[in-house]
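Try it yourself: sequence plus pyridoxal-5'-phosphate, in.
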Amino acid sequence: MRRFVSYRARNLISTTTTSSLLAAFRFLSTLQPSSSDSMGSDYSSTPVTRDTLNPKVLNCEYAVRGEIVTLAQKLQEEIKENPGSHPFDEILYCNIGNPQSLAQQPITFFREVLALCDHPAILDKSETQGLFSADAIERAFQILDQIPGRATGAYSHSQGIKGLRDTIASGIEARDGYPVDPNDLFLTDGASPAVHMMMQLLIRSENDGILCPIPQYPLYSASIALHGGTLVPYYLDEQTGWGLEISELEQQLKTAKSKGIDVRALVVINPGNPTGQVLGEANQREIVEFCKREGLVLLADEVYQENVYVPDKKFHSFKKVSRSMGYGEKDISLVSFQSVSKGFYGECGKRGGYMEVTGFSPEVREQIYKVASVNLCSNISGQILASLIMSPPKVGDESYVSFSAEKEGILSSLARRAKTLEDALNSLEGVTCNRAEGAMYLFPRINLPDKAIKAAEAAKTAPDAFYAKRLLNATGIVVVPGSGFRQVPGTWHFRCTILPQEEKIPAIVSRLTEFHEKFMNEFRG
Ligand SMILES: Cc1ncc(COP(=O)(O)O)c(C=O)c1O
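Structure, out:
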């Protein structure tokens, strides 16, 4: 019977269920004493208190899902409960690189293959030929043949299914033109666990430092904090489009060494988050040379490799750049992170990715494998997707034309959205914004009036968080304050994604422009 409930009806049921659950939760919350209440919720006799928690956990911050987002969720609830209670009727989430949460559609070929792998019983049904493309069916058969037991519900090898690693290795070879050993690949639940794994392997104590760009994606500061290391900052140069200067790396390395820090690795995010710049090849060669000279592991975050929007820039992997300089396996230690979450596919919730680990001895590799095996394996759908993004349909495959149209549609729309938002931001008083050459973000600088800075101080908040909160309360637009990514002291920024649907961009621009004018009028001298 349930089988015949229509999609619309099911949606209605689930919305109704969710809202009744929320209502029940709200009702119960009014009955339950708050955590500071002495009745029944005095936790002082429980074995763990905030004071006895691991201080590394307390030190760790992750602004992308911080206070502003919590406020946004509260406002969303209020609008739902009481329409008209705010000067806007929806929350516009520009805070996180999560494309499908903002209505980006998944790539059909990828989902067809995933669906078939997850439910192989339909592969033999005659209707399947009409519903799925021939190359998706063929790919699903190939993939299932590579999975021990042909079951996506089984654990796999801790580095990931060997056949999928072979496919990914061929994809990287096709991208870079240099050989890849499938045994160098570790398939992971997105790039985040891979980054944590490398930090865990490299950081022995607070005397170990990791050179990180500032501004940076807070996964890095959070992971370094969680593993008890020291973040050694190097500042990207906003004046030159968030340029990465070797002289700055040298200076910061020297300063860190003078403080007794053993700097072990350099993190480079290319294309950059939150800064959106795409590194030039010559600059990448200098970076490789620097790591080699200084004996640093190069941690190359390349999750935005498909997101380049300007014709004068191109993505080059650090693996390709280092091999093109004649450096082989034993010359440079390099880890490249890739993810299914970004690009034009945006499959964040599927949690897939890999790291390619080169230039480490067999003894070290054994330890990396041991750490990976503690987690048993990454999820199999994520592994399949990682193989698909590195080996999409080719010319002549049935899906090729529709796949290319979907890909091109998403990437060209992202490029238009980036340009429209960049122009709008640059037209605001006291705001300057570098190009989003790649990735999914703009990171404008706001020259806030002194009065606004004083008001923020009085409110015990960072000036850019003060601006972001006012923006949210006035317009429903959610951005992340620059202080969450770190920035040159005394400068203020915010990060705004380019991901809201294209038809929503004009509303974002007009609400932001109106808010900014009012804000500046209120606080100007
Ligand atoms: C630069 C960068 N690296 C890594 C990640 C982690 O992504 P995931 O764990 O979803 O692969 C993100 C997510 O936004 C990112 O922006």
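One thing you can check immediately is this: Residues 97, 190-192, 217, 219, 269, 273, 301, 303, 339, 341, 348, 353 surround pyridoxal-5'-phosphate (CB under 6 Å).
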